């Protein structure tokens, strides 16, 4: 994806975040209290001055009752039944080494979605809560290795392994290396 496409996606995402807050009639202070994210960070994200990290989007999704894919699909074009690989939305959190490809055609009315995740060797992402409590996830490692911690239990996954879980609390995704990890993530709303 080129920079113009990424900039346009960031701008639409920023506008959608501002819309969601406005729809609820919340001030930046109220959203900060609900999400645990500073007012200045929220303001900068809503003005597209920063590209939100995965952890930040996860917190906002939790406040707004959406999965990350649902939020990102709201800033894409009208949904299709088929989305070609070249047209699948890709979102990058360069600070954490996380790349997320929305494989499933976006559709707000469906409960399941398929995502491709990639973490660079050494990447470590912690989420303090699920975007939707009870969210079902199936994590299938395609290449590399992945450490997933949920409910204080760490799971070590190698290529071909699949972990199914319901997410109720904090989770952590780590790529111990030495190579990057690539995995498929099936997400099902409760």
Structure described in brief:
Helix content is 29%, strand content 32%. It has 190 residues and is an alpha+beta fold. The protein has two domains: 3-73, lambda repressor-like DNA-binding domains (434 Repressor (Amino-terminal Domain)), CATH 1.10.260; 85-188, Sandwich (Jelly Rolls), CATH 2.60.120.
Q: What structural keywords apply?
A:
190 residues; 434 Repressor (Amino-terminal Domain); Jelly Rolls; four-stranded antiparallel beta sheet
Give a written overview of the molecule.
There is one protein chain. The protein is of the alpha+beta class and 190 residues long. It has two domains: 3-73, lambda repressor-like DNA-binding domains (434 Repressor (Amino-terminal Domain), Orthogonal Bundle); 85-188, Jelly Rolls (Sandwich), CATH 2.60.120.10. It is 29% helix and 32% strand. The protein contains five helices and ten strands. It has helices at 3-24, 28-35, 39-46, 54-64, 68-73; strands at 90-93, 98-102, 112-119, 124-127, 135-143, 145-150, 153-158, 162-167, 171-174, 181-188. The strands form two sheets. A six-stranded antiparallel beta sheet has the order 1-2-3-10-5-8, with no helix packed on it. The chain has a four-stranded antiparallel beta sheet with strand order 4-9-6-7. The chain starts with a helix and ends with a strand.
